[in-house]
Model the fold of this input.
Amino acid sequence: MTVIPRPGLVRETGGSFPLTEPAVSLDPALPAEGYVLDVGDGGVSLRGGSPAGVFYGTRTLRQLLPPDCSTGTVPGVHIEDAPRFGWRGVLLDVARHFMPVAAVLRFIDLAAYHKLNVLHLHLTDDQGWRIEVPGWPRLTSVGARRPRTMLGARQHGLYDDRPHAGHYTDDDLRRIVAYAAQRHVTVVPEIDMPGHMQAAIAAYPQLGNGFTGGVRTSWGISPHVLNMQPSTLDFCRQVLDHVCALFPSPLVSIGGDECPVDEWAAHSDDPHAIQPRFTAEMAAHLATHGRRVLGWDEILAGGAPPDAVIAAWRGFAPIAAAAAAGHDVVACPDVALYLDYRQSDDPGEPTPVGPPLTLADVYAFEPPPSDRLLGAQANVWTEHMESAQRVDYMVYPRLCAFAEVVWSPPERDFTEFRKRLQPHLRRLDALGVNYRPLSGPRPGDARPGAPGNPRTLADRLAELHEMTADLRRTR
Ligand code: ACM
Done:
């Protein structure tokens, strides 16, 4: 079947039946996340390959009811369903804009409703540190707040004049992990390092290379990165120890993207050799906790640790490069799956950045075949999303399209999907989701005070070609 009931995969057996408590059983012969759902004279029966399979069956059952679940009758169906990929992920950046716990729980609930099973939680960045670490209180007392925030793309140099702050307590994070687990979603935490660390360095200047400024208030990449003193590596290990204590995920991300070497070049003849050594140290430390390291595709440069999983984001080229280097890979090419990119050329789109990435574009995404491909992930970077409502607008309905790509067989027809999406949007209405209307932005969706920087796809592809030159050299 699918995320949104899809003809051909749903066998309509006729009739309409009262919704009864499903008779649930486990059937180890089914794929672990698969299920078989029958609605007929015998009532509702649901067999799952595991509790996750049963859960996905219940999501489908909910979609067979009217959008507001107002009647207690279900059409007669026989559905045999299982996902195509084991990693059906979405990244939420809570560093650029903090999201209160309730909003994160709602984000998880909606993702799980669409049968996604990974929340990659980007907890730290130059613009904010959102997790407490024992013994390092300034990470949150200093690193979790900034005095103001850039408004729109950095080319315009505009700012608001409001402080922005927020972080999660250990209990908050345990609650998020538990809530996700109940919905068969694994929360994969990310501590982005050794670059994207300005907030931590603002809190503890001894981690840096002489920088004594504050948490970054503008977007873009900070030049201020970690030094490689033994005490700094020890700090990183302590952070990862705490992350491992809170998050049971078998994978932990250390990020590793966009780390400028300029500060290291001042006292090293081979600054490009530094990050690979750092990554190896952190991977070895995670291994002592029985965890594998996840990193952005930049960690391929100079050789990633053998067991590392690569989140391939700089266009499509790193997907094959990671697999060729012997790594498991999660495909998240920006040009296909970055949901901060603008949804159309309409001048009313809020803070339009990146090349256009329409609903049809996301639905057309197909990862290149590879036996190292774990699945794919849509990434929600929140520089220009200051509220849960804004996140909804950028995420839905594109995440519905993505969810089908990673769950369903590869044969897809956008026109047919768009038809099925209409009743699904009524479900999102009933759930209070502020999705982008198919007809385009409403007047109030614009952010006139936060202008963007729209790009063409050709421009972005040329830039990506330059950015991934390191991978071509590595190979
Ligand atoms: C990234 O978008 N810098 C991973």
Observations:
- Residues 9-81 form a domain with the Chitobiase; domain 2 fold (CATH 3.30.379.10).
- The chain has two domains: 9-81, 87-436+445-474.
